[in-house]
Amino acid sequence: MLIESRRRAYLTAMQVVNWLPRTELPFAAPSRPELLEAPEPMEVAPPQAAPVSKTVAEPLAPVVERPKVEVPRPSLASTRTNAKPVEEVDEAPPPVKVAQVPPPRFALQLLRAGRCLLLVELPTGEPFQSRDPAYLLLKDMLRAAGLPDSPQIIGEPVRWPLLSRGTMDQGPEAARDFVQGFVSARLEDEPCVCLWLIGLPAVRFAGEADAEAFNRELQVEGLGSAWALPGLESLMETPRHKADVWQAMRRLMARWKESNE
Length: 261
Known about the structure:
By secondary structure, the protein is of the alpha/beta class. The protein has helices at residues 4-13, 33-36, 76-81, 133-144, 172-189, 200-207, 232-237, 240-260; strands at 106-113, 116-121, 152-160, 194-198, 216-220, 224-229. Strands 3-1-2-4-6-5 form a 6-stranded mixed sheet, with helices on both faces. β1 (106-113) and β2 (116-121) form a beta hairpin. α5 (172-189) packs across α6. The longest helix has 21 residues, at 240-260. The relative contact order is 0.11.
């Protein structure tokens, strides 16, 4: 609702000199009487085409068209602070950021001992050396299992991620597919009766399991029977885990011993 001074300010800004409201306006000044009087009728002389008697033309009814003036209705903010009204815009929801999973990092070495394949986590990321403590522990485990203690190294170590740069997918699923494909290809060359998965990366990306599967036998599609073991470093740091490995080994030993006979 506008007071008279503000209403006249709007009309002056729109260059409206005279105007008539359609209804009584609250807080408006009294109307000026001269604006409400109708103009007097004007006498119009007829065209002199021929001499005729004097006649007085009937007055024409005045046609007064009332201009339509639309007064903008300011927002509450503009009436209080003389600020321009701000249009409300539907804000688009912020884009949802998908958290990118960093590629896993590991190094695995595939070896063959008799009719068993061993996929072993490399503790240092480098190939085994003959005097490495981890390699010496592996040889002790093979002797205890009744297998040759000088395993044959098959191919280069599997290192992940494959590339340091680029747009290639190197997430956990890609790593699993690569490791399983690598081992499956070696099994086609020469089958084995049991696949040893030594270390969490070998268990996770070849056996599709986690640390809870340690010392258990797994059936992996495409790879057959597998045995999940803790990593060599873990066995060296926690000697009591060796007893759990030995008990699990005794349950599975018959599998590869029968194949050797």
